[in-house]
Design brief:
Helix content: 25-40%
Bound molecules: adenosine monophosphate
Largest sheet: 9 strands, mixed
CATH architecture of the largest domain: 3-Layer(aba) Sandwich
Number of domains: 2
CATH class of the largest domain: Alpha Beta
CATH superfamily of the largest domain: ANL, N-terminal domain
Number of helices: 17
Number of strands: 25
Shape: globular
Length: 504
C-alpha cells in the first residue's frame, strides 16, 4: 500500500485532531494536512511535469511544511529524497545528481543557496507564493503503489566515503511502523513527537507511527535542539515523545534549565544512532525516570534491527546482567532475524563477536544505482551491517564497533567501545574516542582522545583508571586531550578524521 494511506485514513477518522504544530501553536488539523498534501501533490505533478517514481529532494530545516511536502510526494506516487539541511552545498549537489532528482523543495535560506549553487534541479521554496498556490491546486486521488515501489531514498550519513542512497520501499516503511507498534510504543490521538533532531532522518521516521494514530508532529521554532526550548515544549504539550541521539540525552540532562524543569509530560525518549554508554543511561534514568527505549538500526534497515525496550530499561534493575544489558542494544525486533557471522559467512557461537547481519521486511531493496555496493551489502537476502557485535544466551546483542573501527594489536582484536565505556566512568572525562594507530611491531596500538569534564585529568590518573578496569594490553598507550571531537551532522564522532592525523 502507498504509505500516504496513513494520512488519508487518519484524516477520515480524526479530521479535526491537531496534526502539525510549530512550537506551541497548532498549524494544521488532520483534515487540513491531508487536503494540502493531496493538492500539493497534484500541483507538483502538473507544474514540474513529474511522473510516478520521479525523485523529489526535500532539503529542509525542520519545519511543519516538511510533513506536507513529504506526504504530497508520496500521495502523488513520487519518491522522497529527504536531505539533511546541515550538509554542504557540494553534498547537496552530489545527492541531487546521484538521485536524479527532478525537483528540490527547500526551506527559504537553503532554497537561495541551492538556486545559486547548482542547476541540476529546479528549486521550490516553501516561502514562495508559487508553493502556496500549489497547495490550493485541485487535489488528485492518492496514486496506487505496489509494496516494492520506492518511497524514500535514504542517503547514509557517510562517516566514510560518499553517501549512498538506501532504497526504502512502501513495504519497508509500513513494516517499520508496524514493528514500532510491536516493540517500541503504542499511541493515542493527541500524543506528540517533538522533532528536536532532523526530520529528514531518524526523528522523521519516528513521526510516522504517530500519523497512523492521530498524534501531533511538533516542530520547534528553532528547528532544532535547544535544551531550554525543548523543555518549554515539554511543559506545554502532553505525552511528548522524542527520537534523540545519545549525545542529546546527555545535553538535555546537563542543561542548566533542566534542574528546575517539569518533565512529567515526557512519554517516551527513543535513543539510538550511536553508542549510549552505560554511565549515561543510568544518569538519564535517574533524572527522567523509566521513559527510555533504545533502538539500533541503520538507514538500510530503519526502525530498526534491535530494541532495548522501555520495559527492560524500567524493570530490569535487579537482573544480575543489568550492566551488560544497559550497555547492549537489546534483542532482535519482532519482524527481523539477526545472525552474527564470521567473515566466511558461518554463524558465530553465543558470545562470539562477528558481523551483524539481518533479514526481514525492513531491509532496504539495495543502494540506488550502485550495484557493487548493493552486492557487497546484501548477500543471499541478508543485510551485512558493517557493525560488529555478539549475542548472549538470553538473546541480548552487544554492539562492539563498526568493523572498520576494530583495532588489531599484536593479532588480538580490541574493541574501542569497551575502552570508551571504561574511560567515561571517570568523573573528569566528558567525551572520549578510541582509535588504533599504526605500530611497527604490533600492527596497531590503542590511543585515546579525551574531552575533559572541566578539570583536565592527568595521564597517570587515566592510566590507573584503565588498569583498574580492563586488561593491561587494551589500555591506551597515548592520550590526546581535546576541547571537542570531530562529529558529522548527526553528532556521530568521525573516527576517520581522528585517524587522518596519523596517516603518513
Ligand atoms: P545511520 O544509517 O546514519 O542511521 O547510521 C547507522 C549506524 O549507527 C549503525 O550501523 C551503527 O553503527 C550506529 N548505531 C545505530 N544505532 C546504534 C546504537 N543504538 N548504538 C550504537 N551504535 C548505533
Amino acid at each position: 500500500m502507498n504509505i500516504a494511506n496513513l494520512l488519508v485514513r487518519t484524516a477520515q477518522s480524526h479530521a479535526g485532531q491537531p496534526a502539525l504544530a510549530h512550537g506551541t501553536e497548532t498549524v494544521a488539523t488532520y483534515r487540513e494536512f491531508a487536503n494540502k498534501a493531496a493538492s500539493l501533490g497534484a500541483g507538483l505533478m502538473q507544474q514540474y511535469g513529474l511522473q510516478k517514481g520521479d525523485r523529489v529532494a526535500l532539503i529542509m530545516k525542520n519545519h511543519p511544511e516538511y510533513w506536507i511536502s513529504l506526504f504530497a510526494v508520496w500521495h502523488a506516487g513520487l519518491t522522497a529524497v529527504p536531505v539533511n539541511a546541515k550538509l554542504h552545498i557540494s553534498e547537496f549537489t552530489y545527492i541531487l545528481e546521484n538521485s536524479g532528482a527532478k525537483l528540490a523543495i527547500a526551506t527559504p535560506e537553503l532554497a537561495k543557496e541551492l538556486t545559486e549553487g547548482q542547476d541540476l534541479a529546479p528549486v521550490l521554496s516553501i516561502s514562495d507564493a508559487n508553493y502556496a498556490d500549489l497547495k490550493n491546486a485541485a487535489p488528485i486521488p492518492m496514486v496506487d503503489m505496489a509494496p516494492d515501489d520506492l518511497a524514500w531514498l535514504f542517503y547514509t550519513s557517510g562517516t566514510t566515503g560518499k553517501p549512498k542512497g538506501a532504497m526504502l520501499s512502501h513495504r519497508n516503511l509500513l513494516c517499520a511502523i508496524l514493528s514500532y507498534f510491536a516493540d517500541v510504543s503504542s499511541h493515542e490521538p493527541g500524543d506528540c513527537i517533538i522533532h528536536a533532531a532532523p526530520q529528514t532522518h531518524g526523528s522523521g521516521l519516528y513521526g510516522l507511527p504517530l500519523i497512523a494514530k492521530g498524534g501531533i508532529q511538533v516542530t520547534p521554532l528553532s528547528g532544532g535542539f535547544e535544551p531550554a526550548e525543548t523543555l518549554e515544549l515539554i511543559a506545554h504539550h502532553k505525552n511528548c515523545c522524542f527520537f534523540f541521539a545519545p549525545t542529546m540525552v546527555h545535553r538535555l540532562i546537563g542543561a542548566e534549565e533542566f534542574k528546575s524543569a517539569d518533565t512529567s509530560n515526557i512519554k517516551l525518549i527513543v535513543y539510538g544512532g550511536g553508542p549510549m554508554y552505560e554511565a549515561d543511561i543510568r544518569k538519564a534514568l535517574d533524572a527522567i525516570g523509566p521513559k527510555f527505549c533504545q533502538i539500533y538500526g541503520q538507514g538500510e534497515a530503519p526502525m530498526t534491527i534491535t530494541v532495548l525496550t522501555q520495559h527492560e530499561l524500567a524493570t530490569g534493575g535487579d537482573h544480575p546482567n543489568r550492566s551488560e544489558r544497559l550497555a547492549s542494544v537489546g534483542v532482535e525486533r519482532t519482524d527481523v532475524e539477526v545472525c552474527i557471522r564470521r567473515e566466511d559467512g558461518t554463524p558465530c557461537d553465543l558470545d562470539e563477536i562477528g558481523e551483524i547481519t539481518v533479514r526481514g521486511d525492513v531491509v532496504m531493496l539495495g543502494y540506488w544505482q550502485n550495484e557493487e555496493a548493493t552486492n557487497n551489502t546484501l548477500k543471499d537476502g541478508w543485510l551485512w551491517t558493517g557493525d560488529m557485535g555478539a549475542k548472549d544466551q538470553d538473546g541480548f546483542i552487544t554492539l562492539k564497533d563498526r568493523s572498520k573501527d576494530l583495532i588489531i594489536s599484536g593479532g588480538t582484536n580490541i574493541y574501542p567501545r569497551e575502552i570508551e565505556e571504561v574511560l567515561l566512568t571517570h568523573p573528569d572525562v566528558a567525551e572520549v574516542s578510541v582509535i588504533g594507530r599504526h605500530h611497527a611491531d604490533w600492527g596497531e596500538e590503542v590511543i585515546a582522545f579525551v574531552v575533559p569534564n572541566g578539570d583536565v585529568p592527568s595521564i597517570e590518573t587515566l592510566d590507573a583508571h584503565c588498569l583498574e578496569h580492563m586488561a593491561r594490553f587494551k589500555r591506551p598507550k597515548e592520550y590526546f586531550i581535546r576541547e571537542s571531537l570531530p562529529k558529522n551532522n548527526y553528532g556521530k564522532v568521525l573516527k576517520t578524521e581522528l585517524r587522518k592525523e596519523f596517516e603518513n
